[in-house]
Design a protein that fits this description.
Layout (H helix, E strand, L loop, with lengths): L8 H27 L6 H24 L23 H25 L3 H28 L35 H27 L3 H27 L23 H25 L3 H27 L12 H7 L2
Protein name: DUF3231 family protein
Pfam family, one: DUF3231
InterPro entries: DUF3231, Ferritin-like
């Protein structure tokens, strides 16, 4: 008889988060599939919707096989597929591209911490599926001419080495031109902030709660401020800046496709991901002024995230992840 191996805390963490994200993706893409018109983009939306259904089934089996409660996630109460179209087809395509990139990243991290065979196999297949869909979505975006490629820099004549400490400076005096890793992270963070600002713009037009709308508007201002800071750094080195578009959002504002609970979870999830990307950017940036920007902006975003979490707690929208038993509380209840 094969010995049953319990899920580790790391595996539980990744599986729980995966369930919540797959549940969110199912809700959002089930709305998108009802609104998308483009014949090339529609199959992309359908595929990520199918992936979310498949993921939820497999994750449910993994939880149940280990006698763990299945997360609630998001249900039909959190999405209204009959609501008017809130986002353009172009936004939906960019949304899927971003989701696939995040999915590949998350699956890769999971593989490093998951040892049970069925869990490891799940994340191996998940990474492959996200990779394949990302390629399809990328090809569609390229063929439509909507994908903005990262900047191209001149090819150097030979290899060189840093000879002066001034390579690190940036606060005072003359700044050196940006190096490729700095350009890459600035460009990516501008794109992510622009997509996030568009998503929050749509959410802010339909959210029911005044408190939630105010939070979303604050998030849009923060994203636009960060875009300006990163863009100015690129412009200083004559690097082209990726351009966003307000046309990704329609003028719909009467009926919300999503519950405020879903809107807040999605928004806070993006904030957390943004903090992680800023942390990575610090690790690949060398100029001190750029590192300083990322450090300061991370603090600002972290406080914003805490405010969002407080709104979710106040409204009982924040589902608890698996946690360790509180031994002190157990001992106090014993008489």
């Amino acid at each position: 008889m094969k010995q049953h191996i319990p899920l580790t805390a790391s595996e539980l963490t990744y599986l729980w988060t995966s369930y919540m994200n797959a549940s969110l993706t199912k809700a959002v893409s089930s709305y998108f599939i009802e609104k998308v018109h483009d014949d090339e983009i529609k199959p992309i939306i359908q595929e990520i919707l199918n992936m979310s259904y498949e993921a939820l089934d497999k994750l449910t089996n993994l939880f149940q096989s280990d006698h763990h409660p299945v997360p609630k996630g998001f249900t039909r109460e959190d999405v209204n597929p009959d609501a008017p179209k809130l986002f353009t087809d172009g936004f939906m395509l960019e949304y899927v591209l971003n989701e696939c990139a995040l999915g590949m990243n998350y699956a890769s991290m999971s593989l490093d911490s998951c040892t049970r065979e069925d869990v490891y196999t799940y994340y191996s297949n998940l990474h492959s599926n996200f990779n394949k869909l990302h390629k399809k979505a990328l090809d569609v975006s390229l063929s439509k001419g909507t994908y903005v490629r990262p900047p191209i820099i001149p090819t150097p004549n030979d290899v060189d080495f840093v000879k002066k400490q001034t390579f690190l400076t940036g606060w005072f005096g003359e700044r050196r031109p940006l190096v490729a890793p700095e350009i890459s992270s600035l460009y990516a963070n501008i794109k992510r902030n622009a997509l996030g600002a568009s998503l929050l713009t749509g959410f802010s037009q339909v959210a029911s709660s005044k408190e939630v709308r105010s939070f979303l508007l604050r998030g849009i201002d923060i994203a636009k401020k960060h875009i300006t800071i990163f863009s100015d750094i690129l412009k200083e080195s004559d690097v082209p800046v990726p351009m966003g578009s307000d046309t990704m959002v329609t003028t719909s504002s009467d009926i919300s496709p999503f519950s405020d609970k879903l809107i807040m979870y999605h928004t806070n999830g993006m904030i957390v991901q943004g903090i992680g990307f800023y942390g990575y950017s610090i690790s690949v940036n060398i100029r001190r002024d750029i590192v300083s920007h990322y450090s300061r902006l991370m603090g600002e975003v972290a406080l914003f995230c805490e405010d969002g979490t407080n709104i979710m707690i106040k409204n009982e929208w924040l589902e608890e992840p698996p946690q360790m038993v509180d031994r002190d509380a157990l001992s106090k209840t014993k008489k």
